[in-house]
Write a structure and sequence with these properties.
By secondary structure, the chain is α/β, with parallel strands linked by helices. The protein is built from 13 helices and 13 strands. Among the domains are: about 20-110, Nucleic acid-binding proteins (OB fold (Dihydrolipoamide Acetyltransferase, E2P), Beta Barrel); about 130-140 and about 145-275, Succinyl-CoA synthetase domains (Rossmann fold, 3-Layer(aba) Sandwich), CATH 3.40.50.261; about 275-320; about 405-445, no CATH class. Helices cover about 45% and strands about 20% of the residues.
């Protein structure tokens, strides 16, 4: 509570009035110094986003309204669409805007409030991603029947990881690679995204054949990380097939829609990932017996054929005589037809136009043929040159757009160590005696990083 000394409205002798600015500033001071960071719950109304990127709206309940200002840096962090009537919880500080003589809350964070708000955001996000085609069946990858390695993304605490390991071990033991993440809270979505991308970036020999993303049941707020857009897009872009097992059978999240296979429970995901070993043994035994039976039948059939050949070999003279007679018959027919064929070819040769063999005509024909080839090559040359010039123009434009100097011109800097290697991590900065910063108009050297600490 304020007392009179905290907000002195007495005027010096001889001056009985405040200026508008003075009273506005005192009211602003009063509000800002008597309210710490607070959280307010209400419905959004009168939402406006200025060209500057700042947002302005009112928070209301059944009895009152308070103005809210959400600056651009805060608004850019909101990962759902603000809309009229959406119930939210805003975090910020009370302040005043003298230009309109009103108090307001300067918003630092906005969260959905209540199940209804989450469902509305979820429906909007699902419709958006569905229009982009992320949930189409044609993009679903086949789950391998017998994977050599399975990647598991879940929390190390709780029953989920134990159930999955136990079920896979009972059915068909394979190598398991576990990437531990938090499965609810502010960092959960980014950790899950990093895990999916991380499995895909492993070397071929280390990559799992399938990934299980799992967690136990919970409220819509608890399961919300699996509805975040970055998680859904990472699952869609994954080259490794994904089985989602989030929540109980009745729980549905967006990762379930984009995954290559949705399991109703984490235990079911383990069952989908590997077959039953005993069933495989039974199937192999059945196949072995079937092959053995078929080989036996085939051997009997070949033995029967061999027996028939043996019987034929008992009469080789008859077989030989038959072929001798056939050869003689062909010889008689050839002897009778050969003179007639020679006569026919001789007659054709007599009427053959010898003029076609004149060298001058042959040279003239080849000359015309050569000119035709030359004209075709000239046309082809012009076409190819035009195509190469067009490709060169396109590639030049692309190369110009990738020029790092244009990035430096926008205010970025490129860092190098004393060995002229690029610096991309904090650890490399700490290990360097000095670093060189390349800017738009030159270079500067920075040193004394011994006391540098990662924020």
């Amino acid at each position: 509570m304020l007392n009179r000394n905290d907000f002195n409205i007495d005027r010096p002798a001889g001056k009985n009035e405040f200026s508008v600015t003075e009273i506005s500033n005192k009211i602003k001071w009063l509000l800002e110094n008597n309210f710490s960071v607070i959280r307010i719950r209400g419905e959004i109304s009168g939402l406006k986003v200025a060209a500057s990127g700042h947002g302005y709206f009112n928070l209301k309940d059944t009895n009152a309204v308070i103005a809210a200002t959400c600056w651009k840096h805060c608004l850019s962090r909101v990962n759902f669409s603000l809309a009229e009537g959406l119930e939210v919880i805003v975090t910020g500080k009370i302040t005043a805007y003298a230009g309109q003589s009103k108090y307001q809350i300067s918003v630092e964070m906005i969260e959905p409030a209540g199940v209804g708000a989450f469902i509305k955001i979820l429906n909007e996000r699902r419709e958006k991603l569905e229009k982009e085609g992320l949930f189409k069946l044609e993009y679903k990858k086949k789950i391998p029947y017998l994977p050599k390695k399975i990647g598991i993304i879940t929390s190390l605490t709780g029953a989920v990881i134990k159930d999955i390991i136990h079920r896979i071990t009972d059915r068909f033991p394979v190598n398991l690679c576990i990437w531990p993440v938090t499965v609810q809270g502010e960092t959960a979505a980014s950790e899950i995204t990093i895990a999916i991308n991380g499995f895909n970036l492993l070397d071929e020999g280390l990559k799992p054949d399938v990934i299980i993303v799992a967690r136990g049941g919970g409220s819509i707020e608890d399961l919300w990380p699996f509805n975040e857009e970055e998680v859904v897009r990472a699952a869609f872009d994954s080259a490794i097939p994904i089985i989602s097992a989030v929540g109980h059978e009745t729980d549905y999240t967006l990762i379930d829609l984009v995954a290559d296979l949705r399991a109703p429970t984490p235990t079911a995901a383990a069952e989908f990932a590997v077959p039953v070993g005993e069933n495989l043994k039974y199937t192999l035994n059945s196949l072995y017996n079937n092959i053995e039976r078929r080989i036996s039948i085939l051997l009997k059939h070949k033995a029967h054929i061999l027996s028939n050949y043996n019987r034929l070999l008992q009469y080789p003279i008859n077989y030989l005589n038959y072929n001798i007679q056939k050869l003689d018959d062909l010889g008689f027919r050839l002897t009778g037809s050969l003179p007639s064929l020679l006569k026919q070819k001789n007659l054709a040769l007599q009427y053959f136009p010898y003029s076609r063999f004149k060298p001058t005509k042959i040279l003239h024909y080849k000359y015309l043929q050569l000119n035709s080839f030359k004209n075709s090559l000239l046309i082809r040359k012009a076409t190819l040159l035009n195509q190469f010039e067009h490709k060169l123009s396109i590639n030049s434009s692309i190369l110009a757009s990738l020029d790092y100097n244009k990035v430096l011109a926008r205010g970025y800097a490129m860092l190098k160590d004393p060995n002229d290697n690029y610096i991309s991590t904090v650890s490399k900065v700490q290990s360097s005696k000095y670093i060189t910063a390349h800017l738009k108009d030159g270079q500067i050297k920075l040193s004394s990083f011994n006391n540098f600490k990662d924020a």
